[in-house]
Amino acid sequence: MKNLIKYMLVVSVFTGVISCEKLEPIDENRLDYDYVSTDPESAEGILLQGYAGLEDQYSFSETATDDAVNNKLNNGYKRMALGELSALYNPASSWNSFEKVFYVNRFIEIVDAGTVQWNRDAEINELFNKRLKGEALALRALHHFYVLQAHAGEAASGQLLGIPYFTEFIKADGNFNIPRLTLKESVNAIMKDFDDALALLPTDYSDNLADVDPWYSSVDFGKYKVVNGSQYNLRISGRIVKALKARLALYVASPSFFNGQEGYYNIAADVSSELLNSIGGVAGLAADGLEFYASDNDLSGDELLWRSSVGGSNSTYEKRMFPPSVNGTGEVNPTHNLVMSFPMKNGFPATVTNGFDPQDPYTNRDPRLEKYIVVNGSSFGGGVINTGYGGKIDRLDSISEFSTTTGYYLKKLLRPDVRINNDGTTSDQKHVNVYFRYTELFLILAEAANEIGGPDHQVNGISARDVIAAIRNRAGITQPDVYLTTITTQSAMRDLIRNERRIELSFEGHRFWDLRRWGTSLNETAKGYFNDGSNYVELPSVEIRNYPSHAVYMPIPNSETLKFPEIQQNKGW
């Protein structure tokens, strides 16, 4: 945490899109506190460091779970899953998010001092002060949540601990030896920052008068648009803050933490239902939400609640993930465990009793399977992919660290219209990093509502059954959904919600944390499936996971507990 730079970087902002621009060299002596606390661009550059540290959807942490295997032997998540996780080695650590906290704390000091003139008009200037401080408070809460998600846990005493919470900028030679708050104190601190941010931020950045919130109703609309217009619609807004509150509340309400106590399921359900009713309830579930990444048109679709800016065209992820025959390196291989979580097309689990044929395993399956995973015989990347006998370089284990180890390749999050040609040229496409989807919000409501009162418990007019019915209908499950009608208990609905969450949010960075918050097994052996030329055979032990029992709570970095003795380590590390 003491690894902070003395001088701040200048980051340019235009039309609400966060971007770094190559600037002419500047005398670094100008970039001291006196300078950045009076220069608008430099001051805002400090705030934008908080955006630079947002979670990466393309981290593929699923390869540390039962959903996937990483083909690269030195991959950090692979090494962690195979037994290397420790306080000295933790690729999933988020402790460095505190650096972003100190950036935004410095920015809050500057805003509170009132030394920056954002605009010559006094009223517009004050509106900027409010909005930018709201952003900073929200980002401070979010980065603390990242640390909480990765490092909250049980101390040696058995007490649930959260994290240190920093509300002031601390200089490099200051006191960082701050004890962890209790879990509840940490959650309350994050919630307070979110709530304080909500008092300052617009619900949405918009050029429409009808979208102006009541607390801004007395402001001249022309001036309002200068500060809160649509040019800022990728910045954190009140709507996004509420969604993040719901995510936090569901996380800590889960069995590994408060286990339904303290009312956090109610908070998650109330906040998510409020947001979902503002888009029409379950009828607002985006029809094109299944493949939100698949074309340029989807990048600004109704499914995306919060995303990054759209960068230039590239084929970076496709080169990593495409099968070898279409010039990829096959890095992430979904497991047969995940494949079997996709039900039959009629919605019933994929069992022999329900019509699953082990020798024709991909027929009459949930349509999402074909959309998200390359199975034997799939057309993808400009070719037909054969992962079994006769499959040449796509065949299981044909080329070390390139060919699949499970019998499957990844399709989710990849642009199907990218082509990687044999001569090295590519047909590139655009990608975005999605921070929050509306489908996640629907699943938050479903899980929380079911935990409060069961499958048909209504929260502001929406039940878990309503949500799951809409999601499965969109997926292409045969209607009427007979299997859903058989779900009558809270326990059965819990299993179904968790499975739908596994499918819908696959490869978006959720599974790694979901297994921990639910307290379910981290050591399910990764399985494969292979056509040997005569039959499909299961590969029962592609990768054997080796997490200790206390890995439900991740370690605090060893270097931090050595430097700062007030910071207690989680039990077992």
Automatic annotation (TrEMBL):
Q: Which domain of life is it from?
A: Bacteria
Per the record, the major location class is: membrane
Per UniProt, which keywords does this protein have? Answer: Cell outer membrane, Membrane, Signal
Give every RagB/SusD domain span.
311-573
Q: From the Swiss-Prot or TrEMBL record, state where the protein is found.
A: Cell outer membrane
Pfam families hit by this protein: SusD-like_3, SusD_RagB
Q: Which residues form the SusD-like N-terminal domain?
A: 56-206
Q: Which GO terms describe its cellular component?
A: cell outer membrane
Query: So what family is this one in?
Result: Belongs to the SusD family.
**The name this protein goes by in its record:** Glycan metabolism protein RagB
The species this protein was found in: Wenyingzhuangia fucanilytica
Taxonomic placement: Bacteria, Pseudomonadati, Bacteroidota, Flavobacteriia, Flavobacteriales
